[in-house]
């Protein structure tokens, strides 16, 4: 998930991007790889994600890497939807500016909803089960999200339907180890941001086990990844 922190390796927010009209969009966030803008596409509210070049890389190599990651992100969004996982609708991909135009999902992030206690107990447990179900669909389909956090999950208003976003680090893989790391990243997101609400991740994991056809090797690896993570924490 991108944030408003401006990394030193990236260009300034007001730096011109060839072929990109800044006047139509408002910058709402930036991460290490891309900026996120809010505006409209064909008069429809939209989000535009634009990957920027890295000045420290050779220009030809940088272009190749940037466009490869752009294509992978687009393919992952399309693949996730085919697997039955809700994502923002893609409107247009502009390779010249390394930009993806997509639907603006109205609602709040799962992180914000949990921190503000916006859900009642029934709604909370339904959400946790749905998170586990959607991650299981991704993994059984051979897709690793790469950045599973509650910031990268939205609740679409007004029905509070879960939508996964930010597939910028996603890739295709069927290895149990990679799925386990995906789950571990999500567990750390819950323990670091939502520990005051109790062990919410247990419900997510139970739902994952219920909905995944390949849960056994993945959860066995998850136990190993979790143990390695705890050892690193203890050592410092």
From TrEMBL:
Cited Pfam families: Kdo
Record-given protein name: non-specific serine/threonine protein kinase
Domain Protein kinase span(s) in chain numbering: 22-236
Record flagged with keyword Magnesium: no
Positions in coiled-coil regions: none
Reaction(s) catalysed (UniProt annotation): L-threonyl-[protein] + ATP = O-phospho-L-threonyl-[protein] + ADP + H(+); L-seryl-[protein] + ATP = O-phospho-L-seryl-[protein] + ADP + H(+)
Record family assignment: Belongs to the protein kinase superfamily. BUD32 family.
Principal EC category: transferase
Signal peptide stretch: none
Enzyme Commission number(s) from the entry: 2.7.11.1
Gene, per the UniProt record: g3806
Keywords, in A-Z order: ATP-binding, Kinase, Nucleotide-binding, Serine/threonine-protein kinase, Transferase, tRNA processing
Xref: InterPro entries: Bud32, Kinase-like_dom_sf, Prot_kinase_dom, Tyr_kinase_AS
